[in-house]
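Quarterly update from the structural biology core.
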Amino acid sequence: MQEYLRPWKLLTLALGLALLVAGSFYQPAPDWDVPISFIMGLLAYLFAPWSLRVLMERRWRHWPAMLAATWFTVDGSYAIYWHFQDPLALALMREVNFPASLSLYGMCGLVWLYRGSLTEWRRDAAALFSRQRPGPSA
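Predicted structure, tokenized:
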């Protein structure tokens, strides 16, 4: 729970939601509006880092739940919302929405994967890069 409340993660969530909402006004697409931006954005915040961690750490027994969470975030919530909002938009756009939403889901997982504060991230990154520098040539 602590990871969801980190200020840098909440700030990036707010920035991402703001971009999605702005895009819903400036990009003419029949299936992009404010409510679906919030629904899918918040679901990605909850599930994308966990899904990526399941893949990276090869937690085989969690794969069914990870696949279900990924599908629900990327396609299930979208299909349910548009089924009731505008079934024609769903029929027109569902096929093209999936790859775009899955790509964004993966990117969100990468952004929110790190467990720690920005200070800890900076320290860990500095330590990682200092270990990987090649030594002097002989």
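DSSP finds five helices and no strands in the chain.
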